[in-house]
């Protein structure tokens, strides 16, 4: 597959994306749509994160607030009670890059103090304090597109041309970030599958993924176990792995997944072809 190499810059080094890497999901929540309640205990979450790193996750994405359709927001003190102990224990244990999945600047700031490498903000760095924090502290950062907010985003979202709309948003948000002083080499873009998008919107984005590479930033895709894959969450492994492969074939640099071992094996197999 001909793809020009991208590099993602962190505060203390960089990651070559000459082949796609896997971001493993660690949800420290009671209500995430797939693994909610499984890792609320910090010790279990840390052990699970270590397992994902062993299985080949280059990035571990730790989150304390579900953003599934219909989810209620979580107050910052509760979110930190969930993720703080996990980040603190995990940081000295692994060389994998650690990501904090949050849209709250105060959570991201505390996570960065503990040595987290990347801020994964599903609201596209919309909060001015988040933008200022990322510009100042220089972590890598994911800018994701979401139409509406989790509570209501799946109530019949409509688009003219979904790809054009999402691209315009990502272009505008990355421009704003760079103008605010964020290093463009630290940014990743994500069209946000399932965030205010019907199955046909997700399919269209996947089909036209090469257009997202033209923005000039590494592209992240999160399809894992999501509703548009059909069936029950527990029965979406094959669909998730197939979609991760499809995304990488279309130019994704990072795939965010629950099933790290299976995805890593499939990607390796794909590269060997
Ligand atoms: N999807 C989810 C959460 N965070 N971040 C990025 N950048 N891209 C995504 O597609 C994405 C994300 C939702 O999945 P999950 O974390 O498994 O569920 P929940 O939000 O219920 O915790």
What does this structure look like?
- By secondary structure, the chain is of the alpha/beta class.
- It has a single domain, classed as Dihydropteroate synthase-like (TIM Barrel, Alpha-Beta Barrel).
- The chain has nine helices and ten strands.
- The strands form two sheets. An eight-stranded parallel sheet has the order 8-7-6-5-4-3-10-9. It has a two-stranded antiparallel sheet with strand order 1-2.
- Strand 7, helix 5 and strand 8 form a beta-alpha-beta unit.
CATH homologous superfamily assignment: Dihydropteroate synthase-like
Measured between the Cα atoms of the first and last residue, the distance is 10 Å
**Largest sheet composition:** 8 strands, parallel
List each distinct ligand once: 6-hydroxymethylpterin-diphosphate
User: Stretches where pLDDT falls below 50 for ≥5 residues?
Assistant: none
Strand order of the largest sheet: 8-7-6-5-4-3-10-9
Provide mean pLDDT, rounded. 96
CATH architecture: Alpha-Beta Barrel
Query: Taking Cα atoms only, what radius of gyration do you get, to the nearest Å?
Result: 17 Å
What structural class do you assign from the helix and strand content?
alpha/beta
CATH class: Alpha Beta
* Order of helical and strand elements: EEEHEHEHEHEHEHHEHEH
CATH fold node name: TIM Barrel
Number of helices: 9
Overview features:
alpha/beta; 273 residues; two-stranded antiparallel sheet; binds 6-hydroxymethylpterin-diphosphate; 8-stranded parallel sheet
């Amino acid at each position: 597959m001909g793809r020009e190499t991208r590099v993602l810059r962190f505060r203390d080094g960089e990651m070559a994306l000459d082949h796609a890497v896997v971001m493993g999901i660690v949800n420290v929540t009671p209500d995430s749509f797939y693994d909610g309640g499984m890792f609320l205990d910090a010790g279990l979450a840390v052990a699970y994160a270590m397992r994902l790193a062993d299985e080949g996750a280059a990035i571990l994405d730790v989150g304390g607030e579900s953003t599934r359709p219909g989810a209620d927001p979580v107050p910052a003190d509760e979110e930190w009670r969930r993720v703080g102990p996990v980040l603190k224990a995990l940081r000295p244990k692994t060389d994998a890059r650690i990501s904090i999945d949050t849209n709250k600047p105060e959570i991201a700031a505390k996570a960065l103090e503990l040595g987290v490498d990347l801020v994964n903000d599903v609201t596209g760095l919309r909060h001015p304090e988040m933008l200022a924090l990322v510009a100042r502290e220089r972590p890598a950062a994911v800018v994701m597109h979401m139409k509406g907010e989790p509570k209501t985003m799946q109530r019949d979202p409509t688009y003219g041309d979904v790809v054009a709309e999402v691209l315009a948003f990502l272009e505008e948000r990355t421009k704003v970030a760079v103008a605010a002083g964020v290093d463009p080499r630290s940014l990743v873009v994500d069209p946000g599958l399932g965030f205010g998008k019907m199955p046909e919107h997700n399919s269209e984005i996947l089909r036209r993924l090469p257009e997202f590479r033209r923005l000039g930033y590494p592209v992240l895709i999160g399809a894992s176990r999501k509703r548009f894959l059909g069936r029950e969450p527990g029965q979406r492994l094959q669909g998730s792995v197939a979609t991760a492969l499809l995304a990488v074939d279309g130019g994704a640099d990072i795939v965010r997944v629950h099933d790290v071992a299976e995805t890593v094996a499939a990607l390796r197999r794909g590269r060997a072809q």
